[in-house]
Design brief:
CBS-domain, about 50% helix, 7 helices, alpha+beta, single chain
Length: about 150
């Protein structure tokens, strides 16, 4: 399974901001859309990611106040990325190694989507469920003649 398979199921909704967006506006947008990350774009290029992690660190540093900070001051400016052709097992490894919960998906320099750890876990569970159903159907439909020959 590839990242492109996850994106097909997930849909194409993208939420982006610029680095000069106020952090408070980004927080409001994330709450309104019930999302855990925003892709930071500037002049058509990915320049960072803003996730709950950066927001929480900012709140801790500033005694619970976001103030007039812009995203540029707090964003992850070197986010981990993948391509639509990246295998899901590779994505799982990458996310676990870097403790990344969200990965922008880039094809060349074009943003194709964002996948979350939840998206990856759901895809793996669904794939395993499909394989289990196929194996159970295969076993249930086992031809009697082959079964009798194997007993002998």
């Amino acid at each position: 399974m590839r990242v492109s398979d996850i994106l097909k199921v997930k849909g194409s909704a993208l939420f982006t901001v610029t680095p000069d967006t106020l952090l408070q506006d980004a927080i409001n947008s994330m709450a309104e859309h019930d999302i855990g990350s925003l892709v930071v774009m500037e002049y058509g290029d990915l320049v960072g990611m803003l996730t709950f992690r950066e927001i929480i660190l900012t709140l801790r540093t500033n005694s619970g106040i976001v103030g007039s900070n812009t995203i540029r001051k707090v964003m992850d400016d070197h986010p981990l990325t993948c391509t639509p052709e990246t295998e899901v097992n590779e994505v799982r490894r990458m996310m676990l190694e870097r403790h990344a919960r969200y990965l922008p998906v880039l094809e060349n320099r074009t943003l194709m989507g964002v996948i979350s750890f939840y998206d990856v876990a759901r895809a793996v569970v669904e794939e395993q469920g499909f394989e289990n159903r196929m194996l159970k159907a295969y076993i249930r439909d086992w031809p009697e003649q082959e079964e009798q020959e194997q007993v002998r």
